[in-house]
Design goal:
By secondary structure, the chain is of the alpha/beta class. It is built from 14 helices and 13 strands. α7 packs across α8. It starts with 13 loop residues before the first helix and ends in a 22-residue tail after the last strand.
Length: about 375
């Protein structure tokens, strides 16, 4: 990446590194964004040295190719290839849980359990490996001020009473969940750009962004053309940084997303041929098609009858379109015993979502 530090390029001499640092040329981007003439004046080197410097910086930015075998070996040497969610049916369909080294999205309407799911996964990640955990810390980036430390402790107490049966155990678990609040897009992107160092320093094994849509939809209007371009660029930058962290450090990255209402045509599946039909309006995942291609796995949460809710595996490289019913209880998300069911999926960018249209009315 162009943000790679100059001092990490071992092929450069000490004299070259010192002169670059003295002139505040810290990263490869700083060097490559300057012309040959500017570098000649700043550094005092000859043109051949400048060309060699550019070549070394360019090579340092090129991603290194790896084989499938190397990727498999690297993941197996860490915490395996999957992170268990503790929902056994979902883990089974996903071949073991949330894939390590990828970006997983949890989308759905407000109150359906997205933050509850993330809080439960935060507890799960702090567990030892023999209990399905990642034996590390969690970085929870909260953009909606929705994280609840009390709920974190409650889930830990009720889900794992044998592990967290004292206040000392609960405090130790809570200390492993690092919560970072962000109120602007600039703040969030700045954090993501420096995430590499924090993952190493604090031994982060799970990164959560709750939610990816909140700040974007607040700061960028989808109706203005210029804003739409800026929003797309911002989302692409976010996705690239999150994927980089997930792949390089072999850790799962989880983001939450909101819903939106679309009008006009929507895609459907009929007789195994893709068709279209007119719709007055339907609810689907926010941020559009471009963003949907940036996530590796998409789980959609939606309402059913009463307290029941449903999680749909709407996009996965290994799992079919599958649905599970669940309820939210003291120990977090609890899957119903009835098991999984297949559903007729469609493009994850236009998958229709069930929402609550009105509040229940009680006679007094």
């Amino acid at each position: 990446m162009s943000s790679k530090k100059i001092r990490r390029i071992r092929s450069l001499s000490v004299d070259v590194v010192e002169r670059l640092t003295k002139n505040n040329l810290i990263t490869c981007k700083d060097v490559l964004s300057r012309s040959d003439l500017e570098l000649l004046k700043l550094l005092g080197f000859g043109i051949f040295t400048i060309h060699n410097l550019r070549q070394q910086c360019s090579l340092a930015c090129v991603p290194v190719c790896t084989t499938g075998f190397e990727l498999l070996t690297k993941r197996n040497q860490g915490n395996g290839q999957f992170f268990q969610t503790s929902l056994h049916g979902l883990d089974h369909v996903l071949h073991g849980g949330i894939p390590i080294g990828t970006v997983t999205e949890i989308a759905g309407p407000s109150g359906c359990g997205k933050t509850q799911f993330c809080t439960m996964l935060s507890v799960q990640a702090t567990l030892p490996g023999n209990r399905g955990g990642l034996e590390g810390k969690v970085l929870y980036m909260d953009t909606e001020s929705a994280f609840s430390a009390e709920r974190l402790v409650e889930i830990a107490q009720h889900k794992f009473p044998d592990l967290y049966n004292s206040e000392e155990d609960l405090y130790r678990m809570a200390e492993n969940v690092l919560v970072d609040n962000h109120q602007t897009c600039a703040s969030l992107i700045k954090k993501l750009e420096s995430l590499e160092e924090e993952v190493i320093t604090h031994r982060i094994r799970l990164v959560i962004v709750d939610s990816i849509a909140s700040l974007v939809r607040t700061e960028f209007s989808s109706s203005a053309g210029s804003n739409l371009v800026q929003r797309t660029n911002f989302l692409s930058r976010q996705a690239a940084l999150l994927k980089y962290i997930a792949e390089v450090f072999c850790i799962p990255v989880i983001v939450t997303n909101q819903i939106t209402t679309r009008f006009g045509r929507r895609a459907t599946e009929q007789d195994e041929e893709e068709t279209t039909e007119i719709s007055d309006g339907y609810v689907t995942v926010a941020l559009g098609n471009t963003w949907s291609h940036n996530v590796n796995t998409r789980l959609i949460l939606q309402y059913l009858v009463g307290e029941k809710r449903q999680v749909l595996v709407a996009k996965s490289p290994v799992a079919p379109f599958t649905a599970f019913n669940y309820t939210i209880q003291k120990d977090g998300i609890v899957q119903d015993e009835e098991g999984a069911g297949l559903y007729a999926g469609t493009d994850p960018g236009v998958q229709q979502i069930n929402v609550r249209t009105s509040l229940p009315f009680y006679n007094t």
